[in-house]
Amino acid sequence: MSSGLKLAIFDVDGTLVDSQAHILRSMAAAFDSVGREMPARGAVLELVGLSLPLVIARLCPDLSDTLREGMVATYKDTFVATRVADGAATAPLYPGIAETLDRLARVEPLLLGVATGKSRRGLTHVLDQHGLSRRFVTQQVADDHPSKPHPAMLEAALRDTGCDPADAVMIGDTVFDLEMAQAAGIPAIAVGWGYHPLADLQRLSPRAMVQDTGDLAATILDVLGVSDD
């Protein structure tokens, strides 16, 4: 039996925050640690959303496990150091996202969650920096689950909230987000301001596509069949 609750689950990087400057700087340091030049920007950003060890493995399949583990450690160390130096400016909220979350938070019986390839430490920092630490009732991270597009994150979010798949929606900017939603039996909304081309997202037939953050809240409410009137 349905709980009557609705759940909107957000990806973070490329959906809520624009963290590409931080990601690219950290990845450049990781490649420098093994004497290699970082691949083109697009090759890195197209893998955002996967867990970091899987990203490194895809970018450097010929390296030993030991060298790849060292790259992961360097990336994480650089990410933290950059974050300390630059603060929230490295991963700003996309314009309109704060207002979107404020609007959704006032809607009953709607709950908000996140499912991200970030570590717990990384997610906590981003949410704290933007005053969002209490906004999301379920927070699923790469530390606790297989990498997207495995559905484990979404399945855990459903268990946390007691929601049925039909009463939830996944919002993301990558094919990994949409594939994860499909695997969990959850409808998806693709956003066009992130890191994957819209054409790639369209091929996965999301329930809706949004290209302007100003339209996101209304689209989420429409997909979930709830109103904020």
Automatic annotation (TrEMBL):
InterPro entries: HAD-like_hydrolase_sf, HAD-like_sf, HAD-SF_hydro_IA, HAD_2, HAD_sf, PGP-like_dom2. Keywords: Hydrolase. It comes from the Bacteria. Gene3D superfamilies: HAD superfamily/HAD-like, Putative phosphatase, domain 2. One of its GO terms (molecular function) is hydrolase activity. This is HAD-IA family hydrolase.
